[in-house]
Structure formats: structure tokens, C-alpha cells
Design goal:
Helices cover about 65% and strands about 0% of the residues. The protein is mostly helical and about 190 residues long. The chain has one domain. Helix 1 (about 10-45) runs antiparallel to helix 2 (about 55-75), helix 2 runs antiparallel to helix 4 and helix 4 runs antiparallel to helix 5 (about 140-175). The longest helix is centred in the first third of the chain and has 37 residues, at about 10-45. The radius of gyration is 19 Å and the shape is elongated. The model has no long low-confidence stretch (mean pLDDT about 85).
Length: about 190
């Protein structure tokens, strides 16, 4: 499939591809697969009534629909976010996407990242502190252990992604040059951070 093959509009094609990928990765795989099934199955497998921090769990849950609404709204602002799912800096620069749709998408990804970090902290805390009868790690089912390891990786990776998105936002709106080669920046740096 190519832009302009069946849609006859490359901007709409890029918008569909970008929105599909961002929704699937940041609002389907992470919150639903990890957060939804994890919140349902981890307390059952550890034989505890609830996650360790229920209010943090509630906060992480309610950030997801708000971020998803913000991301969906960014598709309707002027030309929409048509920079590809990797949102690489030459395609997301203010010269290429001058409308505020990319800024809204960056804010939506920040909210989704906050939600993922909060849920990850809750998973790690639940897996470590709420074992029934203080069972040893080798007697805990594999799903809570694998979710705790995944959560630990998310706790490490999400702040790096948030920093890269913040640098991209600063490049777009405050004339910094983290990723602009004209000002001495390196566009490859975003690829390494993303």
C-alpha cells in the first residue's frame, strides 16, 4: 500500500497510519493487555483482594481515556498528525506540521506515559509486597512475575520516551535545536531515544 493509491490523498493516508499505530501501541497493547488483564489476573493469582495502591490504579485507569480522547482530537485539528507512528523529527518539525495537532498528540502520549508509569509502579509493588503468606518468588505464578518485569522495563523506558517527546515539543514551539541539524542538533538522537 502506498500513499495516494486508494485514498488519493497522502495526508489522509499518513493520518490513518499514524493514528492506527499510536492507538494500537500506546492505548491498546500497554493499557489493555498489560493494565487491564494484569489488574484482573494478578490479584487473583496472588490471592489478594486488590492491587497494592488502588487509588494509583484508579488514576492510571482514568488517564487512559483522557489521553485517547486528546489523541483522537488531534486527528481532527487542521491537517491532523500525519508524521508516521515513529514521529521522527524531520516529519514533525514546525515547518512540516505547522498546526497544533502534533502538540496535542505529544501531550496525549505524555498522559499515556504517566498512566503506564503509575500502573507499572502498582504492579511492581503488588508483586513484591502482597504475596500471600510471603511466598518465595519460585512459588509465585509466572504471570505476576512477567508483569512485574515488564513493569520494571516500562519504569525505565517511559521517562526516556517522555524526555524525547518533551525535547521534540521544545523544538517545535520554543526554537530549540535538539533534533534540528541546522542549529547543531542530531535527528538520529530521537531515533535512539524513541
Amino acid at each position: 500500500s502506498r500513499p495516494s493509491s486508494w485514498l488519493h490523498n497522502h495526508g489522509l493516508y499518513n493520518l490513518i497510519i499514524t493514528s492506527h499505530a499510536l492507538i494500537m501501541i500506546f492505548f491498546m497493547v500497554m493499557p489493555v493487555m498489560m493494565g487491564g488483564f494484569g489488574n484482573w489476573l494478578v490479584p487473583l493469582m496472588l490471592m489478594v483482594p486488590d492491587m497494592h495502591f488502588p487509588r494509583l490504579n484508579n488514576m492510571s485507569f482514568w488517564f487512559v481515556p483522557n489521553a485517547l480522547i486528546l489523541l483522537a482530537f488531534s486527528g481532527f485539528v487542521e491537517g491532523g498528525v500525519g508524521a508516521g507512528w515513529t514521529i521522527y523529527p524531520p516529519l514533525t518539525s514546525i515547518e512540516f506540521l505547522g498546526d497544533p495537532s502534533m502538540d496535542l498528540a505529544i501531550f496525549a502520549l505524555h498522559l499515556g506515559g504517566i498512566s503506564s508509569i503509575a500502573a507499572s509502579l502498582n504492579f511492581c509493588s503488588t508483586a513484591i509486597n502482597m504475596r500471600q503468606g510471603q511466598r518465595w518468588v519460585h512459588k509465585i505464578p509466572m504471570l505476576p512475575i512477567s508483569l512485574a518485569i515488564t513493569a520494571l522495563l516500562l519504569i525505565i523506558a517511559m521517562p526516556v520516551l517522555a524526555g524525547a517527546l518533551t525535547m521534540l515539543l521544545l523544538d517545535r514551539n520554543f526554537a530549540t535545536s535538539f533534533f534540528d541539524p541546522v542549529g547543531g542538533g542530531d535527528p538520529i538522537l530521537f531515533m535512539h531515544l524513541f
